[in-house]
Specification:
mainly alpha, two-stranded antiparallel sheet, 18 helices
Amino acid sequence: MNPRDDVVKNYRMVPEDFVKHLFSTLAIVVAVVLLASIFFKLPEKQPLTIKGYSTAHPIQFEEVVLRALDGQGQIANYGPPYNHGTGNLESFLQQWAGILHPINAATDFVVKPLKMAESVNPAITPALNAFEHASKAQQALWEANYTKALQHANYKNGVVVTAPGNYGPLPALLNDALALGKSGLYSGALIRNPKVITRFDNQNYVLFLQGTPLQTDPATQSMAGPNWGIIHPAINGYPGAWWMTIPTWIYQWPFVANSSASDALALSIGFLFWLALALTPWIPGWNRLPRYLGVHRLIWRDFYKNQPMDTPPAAIEEGGHEHAS
């Protein structure tokens, strides 16, 4: 047999109903999935929500809101692509990209949601107006004082109580934010797009939870640090995102993990891996690697067992005929 012949023609062909195979396979898969969901339930942790977090951790929730107000929160001081902060500035690439999704944490995360709630609860108005009309220096003083007070605060009768001090309207303002969070309406206020009422934007909702909520949420602790994050299963006994092993492996390299531009380095290295694979057919030497490794011979070992050795390429004419030696 000529090595260039299609081996498929050496097999007996029989008629098959592929549509029947397709639907029968689909029916089997659906049945297995439904039975597995009945017996094993949904392998997911309860999601982290603003309502759940504010209800379970009212004092910590007010700290998150306060850090958004005073510019000390993770997103408030993040930097590009959200604002001009430097808290998470990794490299010149981030600066070059610029601010693509502008966010003013104090306005977008606190003031706007409270203004929406103000329309149905006018009791919010006095504290909100007092804070907005105060000078920046006065706001900073109140925020610094209340930050210290929250470290020794108590939660009683649905509100956060602190020792008396010069906090201005912040105790009332943050308890209004807490009530909005516990009601479940805070998330709706964050995702509302005022330009198009029927369109929602989850960006602010997700970014509001960055920092303390996501770092301390029990559902994420098993996927933190040395457990390799996203490839660790959320529930023991179920597989994690194993296909992300290579990207997360890159983050474990010391020069990447310890770099201020770890994301940029990891993405660049990953891109180089992809480029090497994509250009494999055209890279001299590298494109011969499959032949040198001989994996195809291992897979087709039964076929090659009954075939003569490969004819050297130089001995085969362009039309597929062999030269006589």
